Every structure is written in C-alpha cells, then in structure tokens.
Amino acid sequence: MGKQGPIFNRATFQFFRDLARNNRKAWMDTNRERYQQFVVQPFRRLLEEVSPAVLQLDAGFDTTGRSGSNFSRINRDIRFAKDKTPYRAQMYLKFSAPFAGEGETGQLYTGISANEVTVGFRIYNGKKRKESAIGMIAEPRVMAHPKWLGQQKKRLGRRYESYWYSLEKKEWTERDGWPRNSEDWEKLQGGIVRRKLKTADATRATFPLEIAKIFREVYPLLRFTSLQE
User: Fold this and answer.
1) Can you tell me the distance from the alpha carbon of 229 to that of 226, in angstroms, rounded to the nearest whole number?
2) Stretch 109-116: mean pLDDT, rounded?
3) Is the separation of the CB atoms in 44 and 65 below 8 Å?
4) What sections of the chain are H helices per DSSP?
C-alpha cells in the first residue's frame, strides 16, 4: 500500500475548483477526459490500495467498486430541476457496513474537494429512521450502554472533529460535538467523526496508509452503531 507513488496530484484539486466555478453541463461535457483522468481513475486506484486494510477490519465490506456502492455521485441533477446545480465539486470513497435492513448504515469514508480532504466515519438515518442502523442498532445500544459515548469522546475527541444533526421543527440542525444523552439520540438524524487533512497529504504516496490508520481508529464507531454482533 502506498508504494506505487502518489495517487492524487494538484490536477485533481484544480478540476474541482474549475468545476465549482463552471458548474454547467456544457463545461463538464468538454472536460470529461480531465474528470476521468484526475478524479475517476485516481479514486479507483485509491479503492484498490485501501481495500485490503478495510477487509482486515471486516470481510463483509463491499469493495467491488460497483457504481453507487463505493463512490459518491458527482452528478446531482442533469435536468437542472428548479435551482439545483448539476454537479457536486467533491467526491467520496466510501465503505458501508454490512446491514440486513434496507435503510441507511454507517460508513468509513474519504472525501476530496477543491480545498479539503476528510477521512472518518459517518452515519445517517436515511428516509426511514426505524429501518436504519441508527434506529435498529445504534440507539438501543447507546441506551443500554450510556457510558459508551463518553469513552469514545475521550478516545478520539482531541484528534477528531465531530458533529451531528438533530431534527428541530422538521428541519435538520447541525450541532457540534457528540450527542450527550438519550434525548439527543432520540433526535439524532446523522453523525460524523472525521479528521481534516491538508490537500498536500493526499498527494503523498503514504495517503492510503494514513486512511487505513484513521479507519482503524474510527471502526469501533461503525461496529457499535451498525453491526449486529
């Protein structure tokens, strides 16, 4: 891992900056070769290099690279519906926890945009909270083990940024830190624990090793909130 030279270079970040300034289908159509060369191909190589470490954590992770499974969609709305822009100037590599239900589950992820690189854990409730990992696994476990949150905060708090979303008057509201108690968890719609890296970190050959290290540190969050053991 990380022995074949850097996966990303400045051209990846420049592409995202240009896309943010020219968020139009016509521009994207003329820059698809850049997109393939500096975004798609590097992300696929990143998947290949990180997958062995991910499978060591849990052999049930999907690392096949199928469309929609390990990569986020950069294309948001090609129909230009209402006032939505068609492309996201960012992309994520993600590994979702095996989950028997049809709802959302936790993920280990790496995200790259024009000026930011993030790596960590995230979980959302999706459309139906009761059918998601938050509703079926995470919340019951937190209620049964109330000290768990404090333990994770102590273990990761100094080195990781954390925030979560609550539902307030039918609107998602971002809250810094960790959910504090059972009342917070009853409102919780999603949570993120991540580390921000410099863009230069992603241009080093050691980037996959750094991702693997972070994944190992946040994996207990995914296991506790998403895996039925």
Assistant:
1) 9
2) 96
3) yes
4) 10-21, 25-30, 32-35, 41-57, 133, 139-144, 148-156, 182-187, 199-202, 207-226
